């Protein structure tokens, strides 16, 4: 996907028999996903999104060009993208997940630990999934000011002071 596109949600499958779909919003204010319509699907198609109402773990929406349950089912698992220009500017200490993916992770001594594969959140805060040649398994680094004091997007690097034993 283009650096110009930011993932703002995903389609969970059909909702009802008229082609509506259930989506999960990744926006800080979940209903704001409708503000970024039209959205782009992974294959590059553009779809207008009409928010119908909240459902368990997401929203029921109507997508332009989708009018049957079969069409809605075919979109299950698809990600929804907005153009970066549509999204609000962030304060200096906040980042879009996509901007963190691929960044080099180095410790405070300058030793490369790996690269951020993705950002996860299981409810207790963001975790950076770090993969590296010297790591047996992926490491989940807490994305807190204590563990990650510096994010330098221009240098494409994160400096970390990880909790004791995390990278051993």
What characteristics describe this protein?
elongated, 168 residues, 2 domains, SH3 type barrels, single chain, Elongation Factor Tu (Ef-tu), domain 3, 6-stranded mixed sheet
Can you describe what's shown?
- With 168 residues, the protein is mostly beta strands.
- It has 2 domains: 5-86, Beta Barrel (Elongation Factor Tu (Ef-tu), domain 3), CATH 2.40.30.60; 97-160, PRC-barrel domain (SH3 type barrels, Roll).
- The chain contains 2 helices and 13 strands.
- It has helices spanning 69-74, 97-100, and strands spanning 5-14, 21-25, 39-41, 46-47, 49-55, 58-63, 79-83, 104-107, 112-121, 126-131, 139-142, 150-152, 157-160.
- The strands form 2 sheets. It has a 7-stranded antiparallel sheet with strand order 4-3-7-1-2-6-5.
- It is elongated, with a radius of gyration of 18 Å.
- The mean pLDDT is 91.
Question: What class would the helix/strand composition place it in?
Answer: mainly beta
The radius of gyration computed from the alpha-carbon positions, rounded to a whole number of angstroms, is 18 Å
Q: How is the biggest beta sheet arranged?
A: 7 strands, antiparallel
Strand order, sheet with most strands = 4-3-7-1-2-6-5
Instruction: Note the run of SSEs as H and E.
Output: EEEEEEHEHEEEEEE
The CATH topology of the largest domain, please?
Elongation Factor Tu (Ef-tu), domain 3
Q: In angstroms, what separates the terminal alpha carbons? A: 34 Å
Number of domains: 2
CATH architecture of the largest domain: Beta Barrel
The share of residues in extended strands comes to: 35-45%
- Tell me the total number of β-strands: 13
Number of helices: 2
Helix content, binned percent:
under 10%
Please mark out the parts with pLDDT under 50 across 5 or more consecutive residues, or reply none.
none
Could you name the CATH homologous superfamily of the largest domain? RimM
Shape: elongated
Which CATH class of the largest domain applies here?
A: Mainly Beta
């Amino acid at each position: 996907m283009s650096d110009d596109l930011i993932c703002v949600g995903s389609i969970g499958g059909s909702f009802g028999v008229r082609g509506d779909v259930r989506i999960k919003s990744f926006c800080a204010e979940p209903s704001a996903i409708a503000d970024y319509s039209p959205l782009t699907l992974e294959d590059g198609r553009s779809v207008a999104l009409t928010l119908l109402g909240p459902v368990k773990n997401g929203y029921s929406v109507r997508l332009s060009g989708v009018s049957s349950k079969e069409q809605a089912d075919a979109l299950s698992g698809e990600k929804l993208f907005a153009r970066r220009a549509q999204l609000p500017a962030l304060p200096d200490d906040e980042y879009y997940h996509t901007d963190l993916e691929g960044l080099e992770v180095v410790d405070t001594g300058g030793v490369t630990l790996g690269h951020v594969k993705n950002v996860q959140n299981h409810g207790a805060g963001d975790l950076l999934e770090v993969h590296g040649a010297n790591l047996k398994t992926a490491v989940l680094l807490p994305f807190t000011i204590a563990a990650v004091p510096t994010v330098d997007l221009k240098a494409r690097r994160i400096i970390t002071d990880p909790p004791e034993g995390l990278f051993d």
